Structures are given as C-alpha cells and as structure tokens.
C-alpha cells in the first residue's frame, strides 16, 4: 500500500485498509486486531453479528464495515452495528436504511455501490444512474452518503482493472463535496492499481488471512 501510494504521489495515511474477515475464525481476527488492524469488513449479516458478539470489541477498537450484498429485510440488522455500509445498490435500499435509522435514532453512513462488472449476476447501480441516485439518496432522512464503492471484473492481471477504477474515480470526482469522502475500490489482486487510481479505502482478505476455508455444511 505504501509503495502504491508513493508511485501516485500520495500519502499512504490517506488510504484505509479494511481487512475482509468473511469465513475467518474469530481467533484470527483478534490476532489481526492485535497486530494493528482497525477496520474489518464482513459480507454476511448473521456471520458478522455472531463475530461481533463473540469478539466483544468496542467501536473504539474496530470499525466494522458491511461489504456484501444487503437485502432490504436485513437492513434493520446493520444500521447501528456497522460504521460504514459499503454495498448499497439501490434507492429502495437507501430508503429502507434511512427509515430504520430514523426510528432507532442513528444515522446510516453508506457508500453507493457502482456496477463495474457488466455480468448480469453482479450487483450495483448502473454507472449512468449513479449521480441521480446519489442526489436522491442525499434527500433521505437518516442517511449520510459518504462516497462510492465498486469491484472490477475478476482478471488474472491487476492492470486489467485500471480502466474500471479510473472510470469509478471519474464518477466519484463528480459528486458534491459532502459525498466525496470515501472511494472504496481494490482487493487482494488489484489493490495497488486501485490506490494508484485514487482509492481511499481498499478491501483485502486473502493477502492477510490466506485463502478462504470452505464453510462447514
């Protein structure tokens, strides 16, 4: 991360590392936190809540990020338990989160997920709709739009992600200042390219914890 920041003339302190802890044993998460990790990202609501209960780490120790696909019926479980909800992929989900946030007296800090991968199986807001969606999201009570998140299509070579990250940065730069706080892009395979293209937050799992174990059935 430091090398990539230097190559792009940036300060490495301007880029946040989120350790992706999906399918990672809580003991290994605690080891990472002891080593200095301060932000953890989870993909599945129930798995995340179980880990939060078992680890009992205060918000002053770890900021939890929700980074997986979020269904509207799970919105009530994330509003007051995650510092940042990164994977908000529709205005309907924004409204559901806002309604719950207002009722619970919280503010939901979110990123709008942009669909960079054209595959029909991938989630996200179409790039040509993101500015309109951001404008509508800013009007929803209980919501704080902090920026954008995106995932480039999988590729063997990190350089293949550059054009996608550059396009996402272009959209990010068009947001109003209050919504231009966090640009989340880049994972284990391409985080250096993402930093070079302006990421302020990278989501890294495998490079920290190794390959994901196969979940028990």
Task: Spell out the blueprint of helices and strands.
Elements: H1 2-7, E1 16-20, H2 26-34, E2 39-42, H3 45-55, E3 63-66, E4 84-88, H4 91-104, E5 108-114, H5 130-138, E6 143-150, H6 162-173, E7 182-185, H7 191-196, E8 201-204, H8 206-209
Parallel strand pairs: 1-2, 1-8, 2-3, 3-4, 4-5, 5-6, 6-7
Structure overview:
By secondary structure, the chain is of the alpha/beta class. It has a single domain, classed as Alanine racemase (TIM Barrel). 33% of the residues lie in helices and 19% in strands. It has eight helices and eight strands. The chain has helices at 2-7, 26-34, 45-55, 91-104, 130-138, 162-173, 191-196, 206-209, and strands at 16-20, 39-42, 63-66, 84-88, 108-114, 143-150, 182-185, 201-204.
Largest sheet: 8 strands, parallel
Query: How far from one another are the termini?
Result: 36 Å
How many domains, as an integer? 1
Radius of gyration, taken over Cα atoms and rounded to an integer in Å: 17 Å
Proportion in β-strands:
15-25%
Q: Which stretches are poorly predicted, pLDDT < 50 over at least 5 residues?
A: none
**What structural class do helix, strand and pairing data support?**
alpha/beta
Mean pLDDT: 94
Total of DSSP H or I helical runs spanning 4+ residues: 8
Summarize the structure.
The protein has a single domain (2-209), classed as TIM Barrel (Alpha-Beta Barrel), CATH 3.20.20. It is built from 8 helices and 8 strands. The protein has helices at residues 2-7, 26-34, 45-55, 91-104, 130-138, 162-173, 191-196, 206-209, and strands spanning 16-20, 39-42, 63-66, 84-88, 108-114, 143-150, 182-185, 201-204.
């Amino acid at each position: 991360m430091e090398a990539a920041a230097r190559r792009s003339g940036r300060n490495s302190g301007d880029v946040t590392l989120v350790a992706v802890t999906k399918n990672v044993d809580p003991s290994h998460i605690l080891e990472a936190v002891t080593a200095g990790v301060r932000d953890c990202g989870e993909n599945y609501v129930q798995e995340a809540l179980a880990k939060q209960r078992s680890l009992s780490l205060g918000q002053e120790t770890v900021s939890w990020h929700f980074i997986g696909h979020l269904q509207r019926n799970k919105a009530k479980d994330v509003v007051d338990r995650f510092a940042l909800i990164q994977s908000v992929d529709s205005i309907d989900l924004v409204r559901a989160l806002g309604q719950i946030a207002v009722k619970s007296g919280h503010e939901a800090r979110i990123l709008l997920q942009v669909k960079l991968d054209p595959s029909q199986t991938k989630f996200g807001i179409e790039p040509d709709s993101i500015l309109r969606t951001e404008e509508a999201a800013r009007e929803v009570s209980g919501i704080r739009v902090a920026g954008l998140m995106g995932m480039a299509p999988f590729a063997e070579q990190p350089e293949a992600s550059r054009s996608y990250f550059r396009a996402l940065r272009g959209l990010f730069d068009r947001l109003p200042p209050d919504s231009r706080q966090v640009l989340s892009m880049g994972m284990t395979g391409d985080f250096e390219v993402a930093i070079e293209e302006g990421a302020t937050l990278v989501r890294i799992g495998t490079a920290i914890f190794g390959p994901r174990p196969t979940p028990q059935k």
